[in-house]
Specification:
This protein has about 250 residues and is of the alpha/beta class. It contains seven helices and ten strands. The N and C termini lie far apart (about 40 Å).
């Protein structure tokens, strides 16, 4: 798989890590089993479908160190001769935006720099939206709940009738405590956390149907916890699959 291009991208990752200690690659910590994603995408993705991966981050990495929802949907769309749109707000977030084409050389992938709350995608034009951990990503201008509301509104707009939305949440990791209580990743307070139950209620309020919670691979999470004890105390780990009515 084009070793020279992979090495080029990994060097850029290393340089970015050196510049920003807070930056780290997500080493496959998505809580849902790879087999679950593979089974779902085998059923949900068909030839000539358009799927959008929003807030994709390190979207497709052939070295297989990035989270596996992204990798699973990339492999499924390639296998099914569907088209994958990879979107994130900044090319800086996605070293892959420019480098993705170098690494994969795939015609079935389009990369888009865009605010995922205002996607440059026509109404009712995609059959599926996937998002790995975006509901845990804080905004400078709105609460997590407000952001999720805008995200689900946009999903309803761009999804075709009967289309699906699949979300995963890596959870909220307790990083430190102060006089006001525990501070979680990205400086989120416990009172500001968008719970899985709140997420499900929001999906219902936006008209999504057949909402099902995805099973967490707790064995994997225990292994991650053994490596890094912080994961043993993470909150709100999970994911959902939901559909826009036909």
């Amino acid at each position: 798989m084009h070793e020279r291009h992979i090495e080029h991208v990994m060097k850029k990752l290393d340089r970015r890590s050196e510049r920003s200690p807070r930056f780290s690659v997500n080493y496959n910590t998505d809580p849902i089993a790879t087999e679950t994603y593979e089974r779902l995408f085998d059923r949900l993705v068909h030839k000539d479908d358009v799927i959008c991966n929003i807030g994709a981050g390190l979207a497709v990495d052939p070295t297989q160190i990035a989270n596996h929802l992204n990798r699973s949907i990339w492999e499924a769309t390639k296998r099914k001769e569907a088209h994958l749109v990879v979107a994130d707000i900044s090319h800086d977030n996605l070293i892959t935006h420019k480098d993705l084409k170098e690494v994969t050389l795939d015609d079935h992938v389009s990369v888009v720099e865009a605010d995922v709350l205002k996607l440059p995608i026509p109404d009712a034009s995609v059959i599926g939206i996937v998002s790995s951990n975006l509901i845990n990503c804080p905004s400078d201008t709105m609460s997590l709940k407000e952001q999720a509301e805008h995200l689900f509104d946009e999903a309803v707009r761009v999804l075709r009738p009967g289309g699906f939305l699949l979300l995963s949440s890596f959870g909220y990791l307790p990083l430190e405590s102060d006089e006001k209580g525990v501070v979680y990743n990205d400086d989120i307070r416990e009172s500001d956390i968008l719970s899985l139950r709140d997420t499900e209620k929001l999906l219902e309020s936006k008209g999504f149907i057949n909402i099902s919670e995805l099973d967490v691979d707790w064995e994997k999470m225990e292994v991650i916890g053994d490596i890094n004890d912080i994961y043993n105390h993470a909150k709100e780990i999970g994911g959902f699959l939901a559909y826009k009515p036909k």
